[in-house]
Every structure is written in structure tokens, then in C-alpha cells.
Design a protein that fits this description.
By secondary structure, the chain is α+β, with helices and mostly antiparallel strands. It has one domain. Helix content is 23%, strand content 27%. The chain contains 2 helices and 7 strands; from the N terminus they run βββαββββα. Strands 1-7-6 form a 3-stranded mixed sheet. The chain has a two-stranded antiparallel sheet with strand order 2-5. Strand 6 and strand 7 form a beta hairpin. The chain is elongated.
Length: 81
């Protein structure tokens, strides 16, 4: 409960970040399946916490644990002056 509102934390509430290319090392290039040693880079898409809250039909809210902790810290410290 945060401020009288029930919030459930769910670590699967993530969204895609900015894709970035990284270099593949020689071991990965030579031992990967399917074998493509000429491909020197690969593109990965990092997962970042979703900043939105989801409202469930029973009136509770769901958010990523990192966002829930940020909200708890803001509520516990109070308004900054």
C-alpha cells in the first residue's frame, strides 16, 4: 500500500529501449549456430522498466518494482521545498 492505494509490483512490465550494436568476439563468431563468422556485430535491444501504471479491474495498480520503489521513496520523504 502506497498512500492508501494498493500497488502490485511485476518485474515483467518492461519495454524496449534504444537498440545498439555491439561487437561479437571471435569465440562467439566461430562457435555460434548457425555458423556466420563474417558477421562482426550484433544488435541488442535492452529492456527498461515501463514508466506507466496499469489499473486492474479490481481497482489495484500494477507497476515495475523499480518504479514502485521510486514512488514509495517520494511518498515517504514528502514534498520537497
Amino acid at each position: 500500500m502506497v498512500g492508501g492505494i494498493k500497488i502490485i509490483s511485476n518485474p515483467f512490465l518492461v519495454e524496449d529501449g534504444e537498440p545498439c550494436e555491439i561487437k561479437r568476439d571471435w569465440r562467439e563468431r566461430l562457435l555460434s549456430m548457425p555458423w556466420k563468422p563474417w558477421t562482426a556485430t550484433k544488435t541488442i535491444t535492452p529492456k527498461i522498466p515501463m514508466k506507466k501504471f496499469l489499473k486492474l479491474p479490481n481497482g489495484t495498480y500494477m507497476a515495475h518494482p523499480q518504479i514502485v520503489n521510486e514512488i514509495k521513496n517520494l511518498v515517504s520523504t514528502g514534498p520537497g521545498l
